[in-house]
Amino acid sequence: MVGRVKRKAGLVAAAERIEQQPAARSCALCDRPLGVKVEWHHPVPKCEGGRETVPVHPICHRTIHATFSNGELAREFADFAVLRAHPEMARFLRWIAGKPADFHAPTKGAR
Question: What is the CA radius of gyration of the chain?
Fold first, then answer.
């Protein structure tokens, strides 16, 4: 039971972080409003020394990691403007733009 309590406390803390930060109410990648499910993305992956996290939709998070390796994210795509400009990500962003906040679809691995 300890794991469940710890996870629930983490979810409560994450929800409080979103409420305290007005900018955190939208996805860092696609800028759509966040839904019920929120994941926290490290622009510079933890294995590469990153500590900062930003809120993203689960589908956006999976697309980022299906498209780029952790090394690529750390070296070239830590800046979201550069990440959005990549052709594959730009195509994804055009597609996801009109979808509701909690939209989910299978993510194909591009790597």
Answer: 14
How far, in Å, CA of 98 to CA of 32, rounded? 9
Phi first, then psi: give them for residue 11, nearest 5 degrees. -65, -40
Task: Judge contact between 55 and 40, C-beta under 8 A.
Answer: yes
Distance CA 71, CA 75 (A): 6
45-76 pLDDT, tens per residue? 999 888 999 999 999 999 999 999 999 999 99
pTM: 0.76
Give the CA dihedral 11, 15, 21, 25, nearest 10 degrees: 110
